[in-house]
Write the structure tokens for this entry.
Amino acid sequence: MTARIEVQRDARRGDPVEVRIVIQHPMETGFRYDSLGRQTPRNVIHRFECRYGGVEVFRASMGAGIAANPYLRFFVRAEQSGDIECRWVDQENASGYASARVTVNG
Amino acid sequence: MPDGRRPWTLTARGARRRALAALVALFALPRRALAQPIMNPAPGVDARTINTPQGALQSILKGAAMRRGRVRLELPSAAENGHSVPMLVRVDSPMSETDYVRRIDLVSEKNPVPLMASFFLGSHMGRAEVESRVRLNGTQRVTALAQLSDGSFWFDAADIVVNESACLDGG
């Protein structure tokens, strides 16, 4: 699963750092039928989590109500320089990982 | 009878057939309903009740009251289609160690699975704001429910006109 993560590179301690991530995934609803009339099984990224400096800061539990190629934008408070790591898993147990480094000044 | 048919027999057979069909339908319907895949079985929640917007909200509230305010849900007032609608939710919270947003849930009035997403936040986030893109199955009201660290629930609702819904046409 291809993903693109964008995080503000430098931040001042205490400031919220913006994290933006897009994951390439169909977020299959389970309500679609193929040309032979077979139901396409539901397969969505149902769990997404973000860690900063090893600590879980944000988690999302998603359903078919989240659009294909899920996009998330959220904030993390800059505390110390470190990696912002995102991990996710879909219903076929395919998982993905993306990370970005943030440097904290002051 | 001139053409050899006996209308009364046919009528009686027709009625019997209709009664039989009704009987079969009576038993077939609940079976078909049961055969539907269970959508989004959240832990500890009955899948049959979570499939209604009220059920989804109640599964989170667990009897607690929710008040309007502190939450701001931003959706466009109209969308050409429901495949990918920008959604922003923001909660008025200092996001400090003692006063922060615990979770935000998005509930759709018309989607087959009403609970669209649950976001679990915490004091490490610095700002209680989440943006994403949602699928919407038609014109409806979307509710964003937030639970703060003191346990209180706050919500906002936004109405959106969706010209072409997702879900039904291969979206």
